[in-house]
């Protein structure tokens, strides 16, 4: 598994720009679909089921996003933090890893943001009498109100679980194996309310679009107004993504990638050197 992760990480860093960017855009869109489904599930379950069970359902359906990424084929920034294993093994340089991360991060933002725009234009926020949009706004408000340090720690925890899901997939031999490996860790991080930078690239722009473009009838239906969400701005989005992204890198690259490289590959690299 470790050797496979190292080899795949090296191969990914060498993808040509447009191929890597396109795959990253797809991954952003896929995570956006998972976020959209999680939002719907939360609306349907909230107030009917106990809190824990509601969160579990939300986490389970969000797993769609990483399943699409892994099985369908796409490049996700958080999972690509495991590229650090190829760097630690001397297979690629730091510049190659950083290049890949920057391209993938930008592509993920494009894909997730475009998905948010399409879902908004579809009028999805108005479903269930506006409850879908109200839930998205409430979730986005909670995220931008997080202080830097809690957002950082939640980002660390989220990507430990995401990268563990990807790591488990390196032992898979079939589509069924991959899906079964992905669902529990992803359900856990979402149910716990941890922070995933790419998921936030969908939810936060979606909420901003609702705030800026939803008609008066929507606000009347949910008994609110755009002014209630004055704190939801692009500046607040950036203030959330910064600590969450840093946390994701620490959790994925250091606490999973570097640890597994040290445990399984360090001795081999030393002996061969």
How does this structure look, described?
The protein is an all-alpha fold and 273 residues long. The protein contains 13 helices and no strands. The chain has helices at 2-13, 17-45, 51-62, 64-73, 84-88, 94-121, 131-144, 148-169, 175-191, 197-213, 216-222, 234-264, 266-272. Helix 2 crosses helix 7 (131-144), helix 2 crosses helix 10 and helix 7 packs across helix 10 (197-213). It is globular and about 65 Å long. It starts with a helix and ends with a helix. The relative contact order is 0.17. The model has no long low-confidence stretch (mean pLDDT 95).
The description of the largest β-sheet is:
none
- Note the gap between the termini: 21 Å
Taking Cα atoms only, what radius of gyration do you get, to the nearest Å?
A: 19 Å
Low-confidence segments: none
Helix segment tally: 13
**Structural class category:** mainly alpha
Number of strands: 0
Overall body shape:
globular
What portion of the residues fall into strands of 2 or more residues? under 5%
Quote the average pLDDT: 95
What's a quick, concise take on this entry?
The chain is mainly alpha-helical. It has helices at residues 2-13, 17-45, 51-62, 64-73, 84-88, 94-121, 131-144, 148-169, 175-191, 197-213, 216-222, 234-264, 266-272. α2 crosses α7 and α8 packs antiparallel against α9 (175-191).
């Amino acid at each position: 598994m470790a050797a496979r992760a190292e080899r795949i990480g090296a191969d990914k860093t060498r993808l040509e720009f447009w191929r890597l960017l396109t795959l990253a855009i797809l991954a952003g869109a896929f995570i956006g679909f998972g976020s959209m489904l999680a939002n719907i599930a939360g609306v349907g379950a909230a107030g009917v089921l106990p809190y824990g069970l509601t969160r579990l359902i939300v986490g389970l359906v969000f797993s769609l996003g990483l399943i699409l990424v892994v099985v369908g084929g796409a490049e996700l920034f958080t999972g690509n933090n495991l590229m650090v294993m190829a760097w630690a093994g001397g297979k690629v340089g730091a510049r190659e890893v950083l290049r890949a991360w920057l391209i993938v991060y930008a592509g993920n933002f494009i894909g997730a943001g475009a998905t948010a725009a399409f879902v908004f234009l579809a009028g999805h926020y108005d479903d269930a009498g506006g409850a879908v949009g109200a839930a998205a706004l409430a979730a986005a408000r909670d995220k931008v109100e997080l202080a830097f340090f809690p957002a950082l720690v939640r980002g660390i925890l989220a990507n430990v679980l995401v990268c563990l899901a990807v790591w488990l997939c390196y032992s898979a031999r079939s589509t069924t194996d991959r899906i079964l490996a992905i669902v529990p860790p992803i359900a856990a991080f979402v149910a716990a309310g941890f922070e995933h930078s790419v998921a936030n690239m969908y939810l936060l722009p979606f909420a901003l679009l609702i705030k800026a473009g939803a008609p008066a009838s929507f606000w009347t239906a949910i008994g609110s107004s755009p002014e209630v969400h004055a704190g939801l701005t692009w500046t607040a989005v950036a203030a959330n993504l910064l600590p969450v992204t840093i946390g994701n890198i620490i959790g994925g690259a250091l606490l999973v990638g570097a640890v597994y490289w040290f445990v399984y590959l360090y001795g081999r690299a030393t002996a061969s050197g």
